[in-house]
Amino acid sequence: MRYCLAPQPLPPFVDPEHFEGISERLAREAGRRVGFALSFRVAPRARCRAELASGKVDAMAVADVAENRAVAEFPRRPDGRTDRERAVMQLHIAMVRRVGTAYQWDGEKFIGPPPPIVGIRIGAAVVSHALQGTPVQIDESARDLKLALAKLKLGRVDAVFGLKEELAAVLANESDGTFEMQSPERAGFAGYAVVGKAFYQRHRERVEAWWRQIGALRGLPEFDPASQR
Predict the structure, then answer these.
(1) What is the distance between the alpha carbons of residues 11 and 165, in angstroms, rounded to a whole number?
(2) What is the Cβ-side half-sphere exposure of residue 65, based on CA atoms within 13 angstroms?
(3) Ramachandran area for residue 52 (φ above 0: left; ψ -120 to 50: alpha; else beta)
(4) Burial label, 86 (beta-carbon count in 10 A; 0-12, 13-18, 19+)
(5) What is the average pLDDT score of the chain?
(6) What was the pLDDT predicted at 183?
(7) What does pTM read for this prediction?
(8) In terms of Cα–Cα distance, which of 48, 50, 42 is closest to 15?
(9) What letter would DSSP give residue 125?
(10) Rounded to an integer, what distance in angstroms lies between the CA atom of residue 72 and that of residue 49?
(11) pLDDT, tens only, 51-108
(12) Beta strands in 122-158 (DSSP E)
């Protein structure tokens, strides 16, 4: 099974350098139990998605949003809904603002006046999805969150949204007290190990067994995020 990873590390879930994040270890051990030998490669998320659609890779970890559903099969419950009990990671969306600004976000909507311009990283589909329906202009021109935060510091955007885990890693290098982060609990979402549609048709029974093993393994201590931080 050819498994594609985006290059952004998301500790403790994604480790694109050594492939030892919780999500990679879960997918690999579950694969070993059902006869899938995983090989990992790293590419920009959009390329991973395109290669999943074309069959050049077989699997990747993504959120349940429309552009991913178009090219991938997800683990599903009997009622057809995505099965969060078989997710490989639980992530949160966060907002970063300059200290002294009053913008508030509760995970679904802004409380009080929204920031006029919000910066996000190029290709951050789950983040732009979370902002749908809010009265903000989205600036998606930054190739990474470090550049998005630089624009925030210069006042070119009014807030930056991204994954909490990714933002925290970038903010760890910011020591001048310019920024503060909000991450409401309701802003959480699941990430799933998904497969391409053609791959699923060829290996349906084994893929379903793989997902069942992921669900069984994720409750073990070695795959507990709290023990990895």
Answers:
(1) 7
(2) 17
(3) alpha
(4) buried
(5) 92
(6) 85
(7) 0.78
(8) 42
(9) H
(10) 9
(11) 999 999 999 999 998 999 999 999 999 999 999 999 999 888 999 999 999 999 988 8
(12) 137-142
